[in-house]
Amino acid sequence: MEAQRTAPKAARAAGVTSITEGRGPQWAPAVGDGHGTLARNPGTPLDLDAVRALRVNRSAVERRAATLPGRRTVKKEWQAAWLLRAITLIDLTTLAGDDTPGNVRRLCAKARQPVRPELLEALGVAHLGIRTGAVCVYHAYVATAVEALRGSGIPVAAVSTGFPAGLSPLKERIAEIRASVADGAVEIDTVITRAHVLRGDWEALYDEVRAMREACGEAHLKVILATGELATLSNVARASEVAMQAGADFIKTSTGKEGTNATLPYALVMCRRIRDYRERTGHLVGFKPAGGIRSAKGVLEFLYVMKEELGDRWLQPDLFRVGASALLTDIERQLEHFVTGRYSAAHRHPMV
Amino acid sequence: MTSVAEIFETMAYGPAPESDKPAREWLRRHDGAFGLYVNGAWTAVRADALFDVQEPATGKPLARVTQGSAADVDAAVQAARAALPAWRGLSGHARARHLYALARAVQKHARLFAVVESLDNGKPIRETRDLDIPLVARHFYHHAGWAQLMASEFPGYEGAGVVGQIIPWNFPLLMMAWKVAPALAAGCTIVIKPAEFTPLTALLFAEIADEAGLPPGVLNVVTGDGSTGAAIVDHADVDKIAFTGSTEVGRVIRRATAGSGKKLSLELGGKSPFIVFEDADLDSVVEGVVDAIWFNQGQVCCAGSRLLVQEGVHDALVAKLKRRMETLRLGSPLDKAVDMGAIVAPVQLERIRTLVEQGRAEGAQMWQPSWACPAEGCFYPPTLFTEVQPASSVAQVEIFGPVLVAMTFRTPSEAVALANNTPYGLAASVWTENINLALDVAPKVKAGVVWINATNLFDASAGFGGYRESGFGREGGREGMWEYLKRSGAPSTLDARRSDAGAVAEARVQRRASSVEGGDSLPAIDRTPKLYVGGKQARPDSGYSQRVTGADGRVLGVVGEGNRKDLRNAVEAAHKASGWARTTGHARAQILYYLAENLAARGDEFAARLRAMTGGDGRAEVEAAVSRLFTYAAWADKHDGAVHDVPIRGVALAMHEPIGVVGVACPDEAPLLGLVSLVAPLVATGNTVVAVPSERHPLAATDLYQVLDTSDVPAGVINIVTGARDALAAVLADHDDVDAVWYFGTREGATAVEKASAGNMKRTWAEWAPRDWHAADAEGRKFLRAATQVKNVWVPYGE
């Protein structure tokens, strides 16, 4: 049964604030730096009035977040397809104190081949070249990852700037970005100084992100807001706004090390800022939830948020990434279940 | 078949059907045809009495149910009557166990209920699964608690008796729970009629309640159309009617039950405002609007159907709304990923279409999203009207469909004025990040429920119900329990109805007066009491006066013969004094104490006057009146509301608000004490009053003018119009700007008042059995409850 007929009624379309204009090419495996042809966000001068006027009603946002997963679901072929898409959006990540070249290389191998080939065959998607969106490591392993991923087209992202607290001297943080870029990272995940947000010092935050952007050069800048440490959703909205004005290519929720990491309310607030920024400036900024997304069901909820709040354009890896590692295994299990009809087990899939 | 690879490219949503197999199996088990559930058994299916129930999403027949006849209703009422003593006689704890079992039974069969409801009504399975059915269970749990606590929390009260309940099609099982749970908790037995479009979950509930061990006769389900409902309303052996539905039918029921002595609660239509101030979180507002008007396809009595937006953010909000409307998904109600399902029936779809066409014809701008509605089945797309004026019919009429009208305002006071510019008063949403503004606006909006930065929040612990023509009575919470209670052992309303005591028209003493009472040798100085309107004595418009004769038959004086124009002026004066509602309880107490003080100071004079008029103990009556004024002075700052424990991070403030302008027709027994007993609680709670004093003994009231003048009672708070009680009461009951009428007189007069009150659905309190106004039950909370209405203000919080 067809749940919805989407034949457009052209006559009625006039006057719609379309969020689909500027739609890029349909999904294609990223080439080179993984950023496709998307124009970067150049940022804008700091607009303090716009920042300070932002207000977010936490209860209302939480209500929307609580009901959205009940309003949307995908089943069968649709679920399999959406999960495959989710894989291409993953920044496959290891950020542990005990990382070694060995486990980073294992991660990279998994990024190249995230799903067992016979499953991809069975799903009829072997030709799509499914692999993860990027691999994300500490600076120390950028070179290792670049080497391991050579020829795959998978970009390497580095967490920089005194991750995760971001409290080392700015000069050192900037130097760290440059070093990671020099080692071959084409995406830099930076953290902000939470104190700037908590003190309402938006100029300082703007200058900090500007400086990071400048240090990134051609590498794309993902700005981690550490939402779990910003106290209020209004602060999350304001920090998002300032980061975008300062030229962030992506805004990202969390380091994974805060008490609360990626949640749907944070996603809603940040996506709504991205949408407004787009409508005001025409610039497209990406979104990356990270931390705590471990299940296939969980990642689908983030995909619903993107589709509903920002539109299909934001379901592509140049505008949406999910920071995760264990998630991949759960997706593989669900895909195998779809193919075989039997519940799968983690040990049947090559470990991350 | 769409391939995984294709979907991977398009990232479209696919079908996500909920299985309807168990629901259809349940229908098959009944051969698709249902009898009535009466006295714990199913009546045999009579082929000639069946009518079809359709599935709105497909238009196909779903089942056949029985058209309940008057005889069926009578059998059901008799069963309920027979079951009443045992059910009422159970301990609260025993009834609590039954309600608890019902809650559990609903949960055990939750998905079956959800699917049957969705099939029958057309609403999305997401709503029945996530909202309707969980709220049903919650309602039974909550009321299991009230049953348990009956004795301690409602001492001296018992179930009102046999209740007739008539419920609508928009939330079939939920409305059943709202009605059944408090009635069972209170100890009432029930005859309930589900809506003819959507009877199936009520039948399923009967089946499951039966299995859960509810005793026979306690709950009877009679299906049918309006005529079945009318048979319940008209049945002589029903003590209370509870109805949810249109204001139109509510009026018919009010008129039909007038003078019957039946308790009545009505939950009727609405055209609820959704007020957005410029500092609101607009993205959240958009989702609020979705939940307000596109929830249940807009077929919600409290739907936020009038969007009032502060001018500066209107364009931004409308743009956001249109964007959001594009992403709403409409389709099969059993698809788990749709936002909107089907309209309940073709006739309703046609009504929506007609009203929308009318709105366009009147010049409003209509907008609908670009996607197409399914062509088959009863579907209507989400619709937005802009450039709507308050005068447009789409801004006035309850459409009961997914149609939103948007208007702008400039200031908070204009927002309130627009919000209240409707005969209805069911619910309102207020969106602002400024708590000062939110909590200032909430009390000013005429609505029984106000949601701050939220909409359509419901819970069993917070009363739901309307102001004005949205009806009266509350469902849920402590306030809702009162609808199903009466004083223990007190004659049931039916007994009072059967009693002719009050209906006997007393023969009027018409002895000729020999002389007007004067003093000593000089003729008395003429003292002509006029009417008391707006703090001034006013001559009656008629130019006529009536003689007042005393207990001994002598003429004691004359009073003005008030007429409709005098009442019109008095009502206007009472409205001008509406600031009284905003004075503090302390200030109102001070004035009532002062009134008592000044009345006591002239106690001898009043006592003599009363003795002369009634021949009774005037002194005792004056003392009782002084004490009663003290009672309500005491209450003025103590009739607190409550903070309900609703299951959100936030509070629901149950505020006791005055009803407004109240007409009072006073009893002849105890002419001073009766008047004081009725006027004082009204005034103490912030109402303004137009009182018609005892027709036979009006002089104690006219003597009060000077006492009122000297006691700082603000002009217009208490107005007194003497004259023919029943005629004046009828005018008050007919007056659309009078919010309530209390009538204490004859049964004929009470019937006329209750009938006429249907005009604007004003609240009435009518008694015809004489009361002992000195008795303990002639004052207290019952009077305060009648003088106020509960507004529940939901305030979610969290930063």
How would you describe this structure in keywords?
heterodimer, A: 352 residues, alpha/beta, TIM Barrel, 45% helix, globular, disordered N terminus, B: 799 residues, 10-stranded mixed beta sheet, 6-stranded mixed beta sheet, 27 helices
Descriptive overview:
The complex is a heterodimer of chains A (352) and B (799). Helix content of chain A is 45%, strand content 9%. Chain A is built from 14 helices and 8 strands. Chain A has helices at 10-13, 48-52, 58-71, 76-88, 101-112, 117-123, 142-149, 170-183, 194-198, 202-216, 233-245, 264-281, 296-310, 326-340; strands at residues 90-93, 134-138, 156-159, 187-191, 220-224, 250-252, 286-288, 322-324. In chain A, α12 links the parallel β6 and β7. In chain B, α10 (247-257) runs antiparallel to α26 and α25 runs parallel beside α26. In chain B, strands 14-15-16-13-12-17-18-32-26-25 form a 10-stranded mixed β-sheet, sandwiched between helices. A 6-stranded mixed β-sheet of chain B has the order 9-8-7-10-11-19, with helices on both faces. Chain B has a 5-stranded parallel β-sheet with strand order 29-28-27-30-31, sandwiched between helices. Classes of the chains: A alpha/beta (352), B alpha/beta (799). Chains A and B meet through α1, α3, α4 and α13 of A and α1, α6, α11 and α12 of B.
